[in-house]
C-alpha cells in the first residue's frame, strides 16, 4: 500500500501523471500538478476556499455557450492570454506586434470593396483607416485580406446582440500596391462583460474593467505568420489600464480630425470625420 503524507503527495501525483503517453502531455501535466500543489501550500488553501474556487469554475462553465467564452475572458483578465500571445509571437521588432483575439471575432465576414463602409446605417463619427500591408523588407503585399471587427458606439459587438446581418465587421483586400482603405465609425472604449463570474471577481478589486477604444484586425497571408492585432486611439481613455493587457505602444495611432469635404477614396463627406493611417508589417514564417 502506498502511504500518502502531506510531504510526499506532490511527488506521488507527479509520478502518476508522469505516465502520460505523449511526452509533451507528460511535461504539461506534471508541471501543472507541481504548480497547483505549490500554490495550495503557499496560500495554505482552506477547504472553504477550495470549494469557492470549484463553484466559481462551475459557474464559469455554465455561463459559457456558443457566443460567450467566460473561460477565455478569465484567461484575458488574469494576463494569461496576452502572456501566451507574446511567448508564441516573438516577431522582429519592426513587424506589427500581435495582441489577444478576444471573444468577439466571427468567421465569414462579408467581403467589402476598397473604402466601403462596414458601419452602414449605424450612428457614430465616420472614420477612414488607410495604409498598406507589407513584409519586413518593405515589399508591398497585394491581395492580403484584412478581417476587421469592432464594437458599436455603446461598446456592443455583434455577438452580444440579436441581429440578422453582419454588423461592424468586414473583410477588405489590399490592392496590388499593398494599400487598403476601410470606412467605419470611430470606436469607443467599452466595459468587458461584468455580469458573470469574471465580473464577480473583478468587483472585489480596484481593477478597471474597461478596454481602450480599438479596432481588431486579423491578417492571414500565406508565407507569413498570421497576425491578430488591434489599433488603438492615441490619447484615448484606458490605454494605461486595459483590463486584458492588450495594449502596445506600436499599435497606438493618431486620429486626424477633418471638416466635411474630400475623403481618401476620392469621394466627399458632408459631416466631420476622422482618419487614421497604419502600415501593417508582417513577419515571414
Ligand atoms: C475584445 O477586445 O473584443 C475583448 C478582448 C478580451 C476580452 C474581452 C473583449
Ligand atoms: Fe474588442
**Terminal residue distance:** 53 Å
Instruction: Provide the CATH top-level class of the largest domain.
Output: Mainly Beta
Task: Give the overall silhouette.
Answer: elongated
Q: Main beta sheet: strand number and arrangement?
A: 6 strands, mixed
How is this structure best summarized?
This protein has 285 residues and is an alpha/beta fold. The chain contains 6 helices and 15 strands.
How are the secondary structure elements laid out?
Elements (H helix, E strand, L loop, with lengths): L8 H9 L5 H21 L3 H17 L6 H8 L2 H9 L22 E2 L13 E10 L9 E5 L19 E5 L5 E7 L4 E2 L5 H6 L7 E2 L2 E6 L7 E7 L18 E2 L2 E3 L2 E2 L5 E2 L3 E5 L2 E3 L3
Parallel strand pairs: 1-4, 2-14, 2-15, 9-10
Antiparallel strand pairs: 2-5, 3-4, 3-8, 6-7, 8-9, 11-14, 12-13
Helix pairs in contact: 1-2
Bound molecules: benzoic acid (BEZ) and fe (iii) ion (FE).
Provide a descriptive summary of the structure in words:
It is built from 6 helices and 15 strands. By secondary structure, it is an alpha/beta fold. Strand 8 (214-219) and strand 9 form a beta hairpin. It has helices at 9-17, 23-43, 47-63, 70-77, 80-88, 197-202, and strands at residues 111-112, 126-135, 145-149, 169-173, 179-185, 190-191, 210-211, 214-219, 227-233, 252-253, 256-258, 261-262, 268-269, 273-277, 280-282. The model has no long low-confidence stretch (mean pLDDT 96).
